[in-house]
Amino acid sequence: MRAAVVTGPDSAPVCAEFPDPDQRPDRPPLRLVGAGLHHVVRGLASGRHYGSDHAYPLVPGIDAVARTDDGRLVYTGLPRAPWGTMAERMVTPFDVAVPAGADPLAVAAGMNPAMSGWMALAARREEAGELTTVLVLGATGMSGSLAVRAALSLGAKQVVAAGRDRAALERLSDLGAVTVALAPATPDTWADALSATVADIQPALVLDFVWGPAAEAAFTALGRARADEDGAPVDYVQIGSLGGTEAALPAALLRSRRIRISGSGVGSVSKARMIAELPAVLARFADGTFDAPYTAYPLSRVGEAWAHQGRTRAVVVPD
């Protein structure tokens, strides 16, 4: 079959012949409709992501919208290495129907970033019984923007969106989020900007899609805010690291606040739990709550897709 093939950690994929995936009697092969080129896909292919097994050659791609033999559109993923979803055919352990009204390529572009915030929000709501105040760091990227929309759709009483893109912040404000602009600025002024908001709206849940200096600014802001000792604890969930892979955590913050710092990603959330949440997320693509701008590239131009930059997400489609 034709597939995107990566031959080494520093190589961009090329369209080439690759062996068909191993067959499973209970899982007939699916045909590609669209596979999103997410940050994690590049990280796994290059060996920089903690989930990479550093084995080559491989077919990149962790999820996709595909078509079954009887013509149904399904969302699927998690194929067994070295096969990925950027191939004409794939064998996967699950599939969930794409509901009517959902743009299949928007689903391919947006399900992975949408799930990154959704899982942390769903876990918090299950544990606490409700969502009160949510702070999203990196709210103007695709994952962060979808997390803001998810928090609002799940009934959060107040959502604070912090990011650097003022135009994107205006759109989130129109949806009902309180916004904090972090640019043009330095990490010191980020802390000042966040402190002013955190003092008035003390978040019970922080979703951090950037880490690095932005996380340090958030730690400073949380440390400055006076907390009621009888108030709800703060859950700080690290999800992405586009701003840096390291962040200094002040000891005083851990002693002065009821704060729990954790991560959400592959390995920290079970596959079964993620699959159980998929229908609820897909429904939001169908009803217009979620959207994901995309640029489609045929499989023969996967190298161009790999180099794609900008506000849209590259989606690899069949030729």
UniProtKB/TrEMBL annotation:
Signal peptide: none annotated. Gene3D superfamilies: Medium-chain alcohol dehydrogenases, catalytic domain, NAD(P)-binding Rossmann-like Domain. GO terms for molecular function: oxidoreductase activity. SUPFAM superfamilies: GroES-like, NAD(P)-binding Rossmann-fold domains. It comes from the Bacteria. This is NADPH:quinone reductase. It comes from Actinoplanes auranticolor.
